[in-house]
Specification:
two-stranded antiparallel ribbon; five-stranded parallel beta sheet; alpha/beta; 12 helices
Length: 328
């Protein structure tokens, strides 16, 4: 996948900081051991001095350099074993003076034998999604902001409370048992709100999340495809851990947009990567607007979540008007 320089710079900065933190942490642990057991530092200095002496022998082409190297090796192994024993007796951990990395596979370098490590790829995906989200008009919200009183009492409120509980559980267990979902319902019922709550929760848990309107995503893909802008929105949407595509049906209809949209949802389904799509269209309207390939994916692969109730935006506006009238 192709990433922007900004994404690379952010990911590499994290790896660099991890290496600095690892070195600082190791130094702090060394100082603790040295303070309580000075012999350890003396033995480490002994090992270091022996290497310097060996380098001199090799540099001066001394005839006994090979045999000296074997003696140094054996002595250093014995000295290191002594250090390990002392450290274990002191701390209970034989590896206490070994570096600790966030990723032990690549030792926080980001590469294994010249190939990008999975930890580096994870960072790149996260920052690519963040970069894509910077232009999104959808604000991230919190599950704690959910207000059941905006839904009519009785079955509608019970139904929406069940949806709320399901989505919260979905995020807590992510990615185990997750599947793509299609939020269906009239405007103003909280589809985008709850989707953005999911985005915030999963992003805060360290997952790469992309959120935006279908119009914005498709326009970016088109601009990048024809060289009008930099980036790789299509790959970012395919690789992110979680994607929210908002307001399906509001976009301009074109063969390119339909092909791009199908590539996103089909690719994510094939990779078993969860996606949430929100729409004001009914199932019948989706069938009329989109081709068979898209509708088959949307209506057969996505779990339909039907939103019910009254327009929450309208209720909030009426509440504000009532409060203002009372003040007057």
């Amino acid at each position: 996948m192709k990433y922007t320089q900004k994404t690379f710079d952010k990911a590499e900065a994290v790896l660099s900081q991890r290496r600095k933190d690892s070195a600082a942490d190791l130094e702090r642990r060394r100082e603790r051991v040295y303070a309580k057991m000075p012999e350890v530092k003396t033995l480490e200095n002994k090992i270091q001095s022996s290497y310097f002496e060996l380098v001199k022998l090799v540099a001066n082409h001394e005839p006994n350099a090979k045999s000296a190297a074997e003696i140094v090796r054996d002595n250093n192994l014995a000295t290191q074993a002594r250090i390990t024993m002392l450290v274990k007796n002191l701390t209970g951990d034989a590896d206490y003076l070994k570096p600790r990395f966030v990723c032990e596979k690549c030792r926080d370098t980001g590469y294994i034998e010249g190939v990008r490590c999975s930890c580096f790829e994870d960072l790149l995906r996260t920052y690519a999604a963040e970069e894509l989200n910077e232009s999104s008009t959808i604000a991230l919200r919190d599950f704690a902001e959910y207000r059941p009183e905006f839904y009519p009492e009785g079955d509608p409120r019970k139904h929406m409370n069940q949806i709320y509980s399901y989505l919260l559980k979905y995020c807590r267990e992510f990615p185990r048992g997750t599947r793509p979902m299609l939020f269906i319902g009239r405007t103003g019922l909280g589809k985008t709100f709850l989707a953005s709550c999911m985005a915030k929760k999963l992003a805060s848990d360290g997952f790469s999340v992309a959120i935006g309107s279908v119009s914005d995503f498709m326009r970016k893909i088109e601009d990048e495809h024809f060289g009008r802008s930099e980036g790789n929105t299509l790959d970012t949407l395919l690789q992110a851990d979680f994607v929210i595509i908002d307001d399906l049906g509001s976009e301009f209809s074109s063969p390119f947009y339909e092909a791009a949209f199908y590539s996103v949802i089909n690719g994510r389904i094939n990779q078993k990567k969860p996606t949430v799509i929100t729409t004001n269209l009914t199932k019948a309207e989706l069938n009329n607007k989109y081709n068979e390939r898209i509708c088959t994916r949307l209506l057969n692969e996505f779990l339909p979540i039907q939103f019910v109730g009254n327009d929450i935006r309208q209720q909030k506006m009426e509440n504000r008007l009532t409060k203002n009238q009372r003040k007057v």
